[in-house]
């Protein structure tokens, strides 16, 4: 009996360690507690889990302790959310996938027993079972960890309506495996048939996961294409603004040249009559009229000036209060295209958000250049924000299905290219975007 207790304890400990390490490996970059505390919690969970399972496996029929898997799943799900703050649905998907991995490795051992060592298929656990159940875990852990990390990383990027349906997929297959063992016991169909059914269910599960990876890849390509389209649209908008300014400037120059003769004749007449003071007043009025028609640039950088002036005009037409403080040199060390992406997306998001509020809508933009850094800060009020529990701001625009906004992800990508950061925050009234860029001296 001691051998049965120790063997079942060791097997369960290996399974618990494998599942815990797999989950922690996948979410390792979001863990918020110190490693010693994390290891202590994991060790306590493994020991408690192994003791409970060894008691049930040795003293009761196997089907009686299967519900404990559900309890472990819920506990693991809750703990992962507590230490990472990741989305509930995605973590539930991860935990269910991990249990599928444990089932898969156990089915390999059961199949080997059924074909080559049928004497081990019944009775209590023995020491040899530790190696038999442990080897598939060690052999399959690395490829499965890579697969899960890749799948979960892609899954992180998406936030779709009815996201909970994703978690149903692994839960459904886990329930099928449980039901297969409960409704079709090994005693009735034999070990071989039971292993075949369990293996088929797991095969279907991983086939479904593979299709999910393919679907996520396609969705990722669509998002990249949308970002590329938006980048080209900003470039086109920049060139269009430039052409409009050139046409306006050319038209203004033609008008000035046309009116110059009349102004010269008036001045000649005043000076010929020795009316110098009137001539001075006339020149002063003429200078004032010209300055009203010529708008001074907001800053020396053309891209920032063109984008800000264009969206400033749109915002004022929409009745928004705009405050600008843009101080950027002609060559700030940031490409015009990246400035267009960052500022264009900031303006678009700010205008859309400010128009959605019933309060006095406003937009404040500050751009400064200091040493080798460029700071951009935009503030605006808002009417509606959708914030996911992992800190991601979701788009409420039509067609985006509450996914992370393309504008925000484009801003983050542009900031990363310059070794900088892009942070977004909000309080009860104001949404704030803060971007830091390190200039390239190329």
**Gyration radius, in Å:** 34 Å
Lateral arrangement of strands in the main beta sheet: 1-2-3-7-6
How would you describe the oligomerization state of the chains in this entry? single chain
Shape: rod-shaped
Report the biggest beta sheet as strand number plus sense, adding barrel if it closes: 5 strands, mixed
Task: Provide the domain count.
Answer: 2
Helix and strand sequence? HHHHHHHHHHHEHEEEEHEE
Query: What's the total helix number?
Result: 13
Query: What's the rounded overall pLDDT mean?
Result: 79
In the predicted model, the low-confidence regions spanning at least 5 consecutive residues are 398-403
What gap, in angstroms, lies between the N and C termini? 75 Å
Outline the secondary-structure elements.
Layout: H1 2-26, H2 35-59, H3 62-65, H4 67-84, H5 88-116, H6 127-156, H7 164-183, H8 186-189, H9 191-272, H10 276-293, H11 302-317, E1 321-326, H12 336-354, E2 362-370, E3 373-381, E4 386-387, E5 393-394, H13 406-417, E6 421-426, E7 430-438
Parallel strand pairs: 1-2
Antiparallel strand pairs: 2-3, 3-7, 4-5, 6-7
Helix pairs in contact: 1-2, 1-5, 1-6, 4-5, 5-6, 5-7, 5-9, 7-9, 9-10, 9-12, 11-12, 12-13
